[in-house]
Amino acid sequence: MFSGTYTALVTPFRNDQVDEAAFEALIEGQIAAGIDGIVPVGTTGESPTLDHEEHRRVIRRAVEIAKGRCQVIGGTGSNSTAEAVAMTVEAEQDGATGVLQVAPYYNKPSQEGLYRHFAKVAAATKLPIMLYSIPGRCGIEIAIETVKRLADDFSNIVALKEAGGTVERISALRQALPDSFDLLSGDDSLTVPFIAAGARGVVSVASNLIPKEVGDLVRTALAGKAAEALKEHERLYPLFKDLFIEPNPVPAKYALSLLGHMTPDVRLPLCEMGEASKARLTATLRKLGIIS
User: Does the reported pTM lie above 0.85?
Assistant: First the structure.
């Protein structure tokens, strides 16, 4: 169901409005590069600062632009179960091919609360659901036992984006879950080791910039060409790290602005990169030949 490279799309802004022309160009570039899917309005898409109508429109526009040429996984998670359900139903109505459901943040539910939250969402849609565990942002982890319980109870909960930072957890998840359940890396820098441990791809920030290179890296790793994949991972690793020297997606948007694809604008409480960070990221982009 979910295998390969999925780009966690940035949401371009111009004069504090969604820049739809830049968004369309970004998606067309992704599809031309052979990306497997796009993920609008996740963390990288600044979902917390989009109002409800903007959120729905960005997903709808992604579907309209993609025209079935790649999967469109709408970011419809929330720390409010009712809101997550409503946004998921809307994404299904608007033609998304799947949804990404982040663990509820800030309210820190128990594992039983997590189970009931995701169960409500799953019961409200026929779309395939990718769970998203990112304890560094949410303050909680979706426990392996909870993932297994959800996978056992709901046929449309079919994948997990794992951003917990450990290869061991991928191994433990792979042992606990059926082979049909897809695991994807939530960190570009861990894609190759995660695939070696049983993951099937990545939800990538770096592929906003270099979709072909990230796609090739994933295909090489999935083909079992370990040495070749490791060599490419080592080449791209400085970029993977520098895209997180300040809060995501600030560095990614700055890099995209250097390529002329969009403004570097983000919405408060995010703000522009510091000068030292700009210099470091620019140097890495030049070293890799991404900019001249």
Answer: yes
